[in-house]
Amino acid sequence: MPAADRIRDHAGQGAATTVAAHRTRRRLRADQARQLADLLRHQILTGACPDGTLPHETNLATDYRASRNTVRQALDLLRAEGLVDRLPGVGTVVVARKYPHGLDRLMGLAETLHEHGQVTNEVRTMGPAPAPTPVAERLRAPSGADVLYIERLRRLNGLPLSLDLTYIPLDIGTALLGADLENNDVFRLLESITGQPLGHAEITLEAVNADAHSAAVLQAPRGTAVLMLERLTHLADGRPVDLEFIRFRGDRITMSGLLHRSL
Questions:
Q1: Which residues contact 29 (CB under 8 A, 6 or more apart)?
Q2: Contacts of 201 (CB under 8 A, 6+ apart)
Q3: Which residue in 191, 168, 166 sits closest to 106, CA to CA?
Q4: What digits encode the pLDDT tens for the residues 41-90?
Q5: Pick the residue with more confidence: 151 or 103?
Q6: How many other C-beta atoms lie within 10 A of the C-beta of residue 208?
Q7: CB atoms < 10 A from the CB of 242, how many?
Q8: Using an 8 Å Cβ cutoff, are 48 and 39 in contact?
Q9: Within a 13 Å sphere around the CA of 151, how many CA atoms are in the beta-carbon half?
Q10: Are strands 99-102 and 253-256 parallel, antiparallel or unpaired?
């Protein structure tokens, strides 16, 4: 190979190596920023910034042994989530709050969040409706039987928090028609009506994109991801009495629980 061609090949390899190294550094910095954002998010949500202001970028870089660029990228991620914002002359401040929802105890929303303010319920739809086959099967109701269907918008301190779609066997649900659902959890009302405590619930938690109706009711951007909790609750005697599909605004709620390892 002529010397000129060898020089060009070497130069090309050198340029490719430089581009690859740059991409690797950029990817590593993005990974580190994501890791730092996770740590800062936890600190924010657990009250480590009681005055609502995060430490200066220099202090964060020192505390977490990160570069200033990595700190800035991490804060950008939190800003994109709507959790923090940067105010001139002030610094980075917390602009949103998330509320804890436990997954290790069977409790209604008002029971869960009573320390954080008042939960109110707007009953949007309520009445008997034919049960779709999957609903009837899970509630052990006859195929084609009516169930009580309830749709509620639930607010915490006036802020939309969740949209709850509930199916209840009609022999129990009829007694709910005259109940104060605006100020009471369904759980407490079910226990009062049946004279039994609730026993256990099967839950599934996943992220879904909000449909146009859900987004409008929750005052969230259309298509935004929401946390969808599917819960089938049973009485103490094992009878299923409450099938719910609950869409939570993911920017206002956190899910937590205590798990024990069992093999």
A1: 67, 69, 70, 73
A2: 106, 231, 232, 233, 234
A3: 191
A4: 999 888 888 888 999 999 999 999 999 999 999 999 999 888 899 998 88
A5: 151
A6: 12
A7: 23
A8: no
A9: 8
A10: parallel
Rounded distance, CA 222 to CA 237, Å? 41
Whole-structure pTM value: 0.79
Q: 217-234 burial, b if ≥16 CB within 10 A, otherwise e?
A: bbebeeeeebbbbebbbb
- Residue 67: which residues within 8 A CB-CB, separation 6 or more? 29, 61
State which amino acid sits at residue 110.
A
**Mean residue pLDDT across the chain:** 89
Residue 175 three-state SS = helix
Residue 10 pLDDT grade (very low, low, confident, very high; cuts 50, 70, 90) = low
Task: Residue 64: name the closest of 85, 45, 37 by CA.
Answer: 37
DSSP structure string for 215-237: HHHHT--TT-EEEEEEEEEEETT
Backbone angles phi, psi at 230, to 5 degrees: -100, 125
